[in-house]
Amino acid sequence: xxxxxxxxxxxxxxxxxxxxxxxxxxxxxxxxxxxxxxxxxxxxxxxxxxxxxxxxxxxxxxxxxxxxxxxxxxxxxxxxxxxxxxxxxxxxxxxxxxxxxxxxxxxxxxxxxxxxxxxxxxxxxxxxxxxxxxxxxxxxxxxxxxxxxxxxxxxxxxxxxxxxxxxxxxxxxxxxxxxxxxxxxxxxxxxxxxxxxxxxxxxxxxxxxxxxxxxxxxxxxxxxxxxxxxxxxxxxxxxxxxxxxxxxxxxxxxxxxxxxxxxxxxxxxxxxxxxxxxxxxxxxxxxxxxxxxxxxxxxxxxxxxxxxxxxxxxxxxxxxxxxxxxxxxxxxxxxxxxxxxxxxxxxxxxxxxxxxxxxxxxxxxxxxxxxxxxxxxxxxxxxxxx
Length: 386
Ligand SMILES: Cc1cc2nc3c(=O)[nH]c(=O)nc-3n(C[C@H](O)[C@H](O)[C@H](O)COP(=O)(O)OP(=O)(O)OC[C@H]3O[C@@H](n4cnc5c(N)ncnc54)[C@H](O)[C@@H]3O)c2cc1C
Fold this sequence. Notes:
Blueprint: E1 4-10, H1 14-25, E2 31-34, E3 50-51, H2 58-78, E4 89-93, H3 96-112, E5 117-119, H4 121-127, E6 138-142, E7 146-147, H5 150-163, E8 167-169, E9 174-179, E10 185-189, E11 192-201, H6 207-213, H7 234-240, H8 245-257, H9 262-305, H10 309-333, H11 344-360, H12 365-385
Parallel strand pairs: 1-2, 1-11, 2-8
Antiparallel strand pairs: 3-7, 4-6, 5-6, 9-10, 10-11
Helix pairs in contact: 1-5, 2-3, 2-5, 8-9, 11-12
Bound molecules: flavin-adenine dinucleotide.
Residues 10-16, 34-37, 41-44, 46-50, 173-174, 202-206, 210, 225, 227 line the site of flavin-adenine dinucleotide (FAD).
């Protein structure tokens, strides 16, 4: 571990990593962070990740607005996905007192520069149609609120700080602080001492212990915090309706390598994931019944009219349309490759190799799938590992 730094931040949660990142962005590169175990090992690991801007305190409001601004730019700055989803937040006023609170908050929000709107029950329901709004008087809407992945945001800020020269020391527990004759701080850790001009304590729930090392009594107490994890809620599953492109491609890729037709595998996987075995069977039946009836009807018609030149032409035309639709679906889904772990050039190379092997060299599809698919899996795994 280095012996000196301009600033030492103690604690590698979202606050410590955020401070390190903020300093490094302002050009303070001679900074170090000391973390007792691993980054995010404290309460950051448990946070639900909600980013709500509702507060009546002017400075806290400004801090939240700044936080949202930083989070929004993190992916572009660090190339790390932080799961930021700006979905807005509704707070419901079901009583006169709550409505008064929200009404008076509107001028606070304006002074803070926080966007906020007071909505009628009908307007709120337009934003969230599952809302039971019969007893509601109004709703406060903060459109810039959202949620983020707390561990990912911490790791991204740590990367942004490291990229600018900051150092992070893990498994490094601070045991004590001492003022030196020159006015600096000597910090004792299990891995030796480090001196610095400034110390920042960001030890979260350990703030009292860290404060005590400095002779301070920090008036902080942990507050009981709860969250619920529910089973899939049918109305929400129904509302969500469809997978994102990335989720679909992931599932599709798995369906490809499982034995059996893709559509059967996909329906079993998706139905099973949301509603267990009955869901898997219902999805399979639902997906197969209508196409099966159509295919059987077509088979009967084909047997009777196959020799008719009009029918033969129509079938050829339908084949061309199917091929076009498959190609178009492939092109549309190709956009999801941008977020793939592998660089776009590697993905394009694997696609091109697949085309050459199957379409030009006529290799059996199964070998190409296992060969190129296996190569893709290994390359992705290696990149995820690093
Ligand atoms: C269940 C739950 C849900 C939550 N949901 C939300 C939410 O939705 N939105 C929200 O904004 N907040 C939420 N929070 C609060 C949020 O998690 C905390 O405010 C935040 O994580 C605090 O970050 P921190 O960096 O200050 O502390 P921590 O994440 O606790 O980090 C402190 C770090 O300091 C290290 N440390 C301690 N002592 C030493 C030492 N002597 N030497 C070196 N390192 C040391 C610890 O190992 C730890 O890694 C939630 C919290 C919980 C528990």
